[in-house]
Design goal:
Order of helices and strands: HHHHHHHHHHHHHHHHHH
Distance between the termini: 17 Å
Radius of gyration: 23 Å
Number of domains: 2
Number of strands: 0
Length: about 450
């Protein structure tokens, strides 16, 4: 079930009704059953995998706490992490590694390939589970004793397939001290859900058709103008698509009494690549920082080691997105940019520039990010190289990509709203303001939403 379907809306309304009409002692079981039903609606064959990973980490956390020696604690940690990474590695990276191994042996690329279907959301719930195990090992999180409680943490349907990546202490702080959401939280939850739906249907899905038209047939649209339009359309598509999903997930969780961390904070208004990663997919950025960058040494062992740690973190972050050299290049590209900014002076790229310089810095940042998106979206390195060449060529565009004028105005309107939110806290608007705002969002969906086809969320593939 996609979030932007009638079937899911009915599912959500039924879950909310059952949740609030049932005795409090039943509610976690209702959410757990709903979460497994939601996951099974995609492919029931992967429920045993989800249950296995849940059982491994639930058991390992208890063993880690019970162990008196540091050696045994580390042993159980390694076993749990090996289980998580083993499943993730097999399903997500086996064919990638097999193809590259075959090429090294001089054999056809798919000599060792298997017909593997990637389980939905495996990257997200694996990282979420790993953070729990590591936090228990660090004595930053007590093991969860009730297996149903832990199973709900892993399978909770609003963020199961595409995040945000929620820490155990964040989830269980709400779970064990649960209270019904206040009226303003209910309004905010509904508002976030409708906002996310608008981002997906009226923005992302419209932009997807432009980006797909360019990337699927590059020869038809040569030249720099078409290249920048196609890449720009994808840059906006992936933002509206993924931030729209995050808004809906956070909004649904809020309606159920859970407070998820923000996952996007107007990333295309960033004034540096460092600032961009403080705003884009925030839950992944902090996961990479806390469980990879800092354990590698962070910036504690000199300048060269800091640059190395930035590169390794972003390379692995790129590969987390997908088993392809393009994702590795995308991650390495951002790692190199972060290292360059650190080299030029950390304060310069973490401190907001003066107003007169801000637009230039923001435009440069967006341009650099768009160049990186080429590797993220292109089918292979050869296609990426061709598009990069087109972006910086002076070739004429005899058949440029056409972007409807109404869509340009729609995106421009969203930019004005984003700038206003950057300057003022619009989230604290009075309750009466939600009614016209929701009516306006629903009108945008009605007028501009893509309803004749179902376009999956981009991050479902990760």
């Amino acid at each position: 079930m996609l979030f932007n379907t009638v079937a899911f809306l009915i599912f959500l309304l039924v879950v909310l009704a059952l949740f609030y009409l049932s005795p409090r002692s039943w509610r976690k079981y209702i959410l757990l059953a709903a979460s497994y039903y939601f996951y099974m609606s995609w492919n029931p064959k992967f429920i045993p995998l989800l249950l296995t990973l849940t059982a491994i980490d639930y058991t390992a956390a208890i063993w880690i706490q019970r162990s008196e020696s540091r050696h045994r604690k580390k042993l159980f940690l390694v076993i749990a992490l090996a289980g998580n990474l083993g499943f993730l590695g097999f399903f997500k990276y086996y064919n990638f590694l097999g193809d590259n191994f075959a090429l090294l042996l001089g054999r056809p690329a798919h000599s060792f390939a298997l017909a593997i279907i990637l389980p939905l959301g495996i990257s997200f719930h694996t990282f979420q589970s790993m953070s729990y195990i590591i936090d228990v090992y660090r004595d930053e999180q007590k093991p969860i004793r009730n297996p149903f409680d832990y199973a709900l943490f892993i399978a909770f349907f609003p963020q199961l397939v595409a995040g945000p990546i929620v820490r155990a202490r964040e989830f269980f702080a709400d779970f064990y001290a649960w209270r019904p959401p206040f009226s303003d939280e209910q309004l905010h939850g509904v508002g976030l859900f409708v906002l996310g739906l608008t981002k997906k249907m009226a923005f992302a899905d419209q932009l997807a058709q432009i980006a797909d038209a360019y990337f699927s047939n590059l020869a038809v649209h040569p030249g720099a103008i078409s290249a920048w339009k196609g890449v720009g359309a994808f840059a906006l598509q992936i933002f509206f698509d993924f931030s729209g999903y995050s808004d809906m997930a956070i909004g649904m969780a809020l309606l159920l009494g859970f407070h998820f961390p923000i996952n996007f904070r107007r990333p295309y208004l960033a004034f540096s690549i460092t600032d961009f990663w403080h705003r884009w997919h925030i839950s992944l950025s902090r996961w990479l920082r806390d469980y990879l960058y800092i354990p590698l040494g962070g910036n504690r062992h000199g300048t060269l080691m800091t640059y190395r740690n930035l590169m390794l973190t972003m390379l692995l972050g790129g590969l987390w997105h997908g088993a392809s050299w393009n994702f590795a290049i995308w991650g390495g590209y951002h790692g190199a940019l972060l290292a360059i900014e650190r080299m030029a002076g950390r304060k310069m790229f973490e401190t907001r520039p003066p107003l007169w310089l801000y637009p230039l810095r923001a435009a440069l940042t967006v341009g650099l990010v768009c160049v990186g998106w080429v590797f993220f979206r292109a089918a292979n390195f050869a296609q990426s190289r061709y598009i990069i060449g087109q972006l910086f060529s002076f070739a004429h565009s005899p058949n440029p990509i056409v972007i409807p004028q109404w869509l340009i105005w729609l995106v421009f309107g969203s930019l004005i709203v984003a700038i206003a939110k950057e300057k003022w806290n619009l989230a604290s608007a009075p309750a009466w303001a939600y009614v016209p705002a929701l009516a306006g969002l629903l009108l945008v969906i009605e007028l501009f939403g893509v309803t004749d086809k179902q376009i999956p969320f981009i991050y479902f593939q990760f």
